[in-house]
Specification:
This protein is of the alpha+beta class. Helices cover 48% and strands 15% of the residues.
């Protein structure tokens, strides 16, 4: 977060942290309304900047704060945090990922439109050793791994998670079918 924030920005961001910690906040419009109720006015561009500065992630349940850094946690808590982050990745892959394919040292994950960013952020937060970096678009995530073998193993792991749900579509959209044919091959 920007350490040079002005007093009003600091107060507004602290209020945002409190609000999302108290109950789900699903939109910027709702966040603006809740801030107004606390006597803090903010425009949509200001809220977007605050959300970005705070590192908030928007998921199915609304905005959420990033988890505490494992490096700053005691060893036992760091292991627990790492486990929670891996469970979050597994849950998001289960809920949103349509397919996982290895391509050389890359793993290509396909999601419904607008769902790639939350999945990629969770993968980044999990600090998986086999992943060198991530790149997410609207419905596609590229995971750069350290080797082709790591890419194949990671894609297989994600496919196993995807395959553990019943039905052909992602958990969030049970009626949708997974892409097949040319649509599935596009990246």
């Amino acid at each position: 977060m920007n350490d040079h924030s002005t007093g009003p920005a600091r107060r507004r961001r602290e209020a945002i942290r409190q609000l999302i910690g108290e109950s789900p906040v699903r939109s910027q419009k709702e966040l603006a309304r809740l801030l107004r109720a606390r006597g803090l006015a903010a425009t949509q561009p200001t809220l977007s900047r605050d959300i970005r500065e705070l590192g908030l992630v928007k998921g199915a349940d609304g905005y959420a704060a990033p988890a505490e850094s494992p490096e700053s946690a005691p060893p036992k808590e760091a292991a627990s945090l790492s486990l929670r982050r891996n469970q979050t990745v597994e849950r998001l892959v289960f809920d949103f990922v349509l397919s996982a394919d290895a391509a050389g040292t890359l793993v290509v994950l396909r999601t419904p439109p607008a769902d790639a960013q939350p999945v990629a952020l969770a993968i980044d937060a999990a600090s998986m050793d086999e992943i060198a970096g991530t790149l997410a678009g609207d419905d596609t995530i590229f995971l750069a791994t350290r080797s082709a073998a790591a890419a194949r193993a990671l894609a297989a792991r994600f496919r196993q998670t995807i395959g553990s749900r019943s039905g052909a579509g992602p958990a969030r959209f049970p009626g949708r079918r997974r892409p097949s044919g040319p649509a599935r091959r596009r990246a």
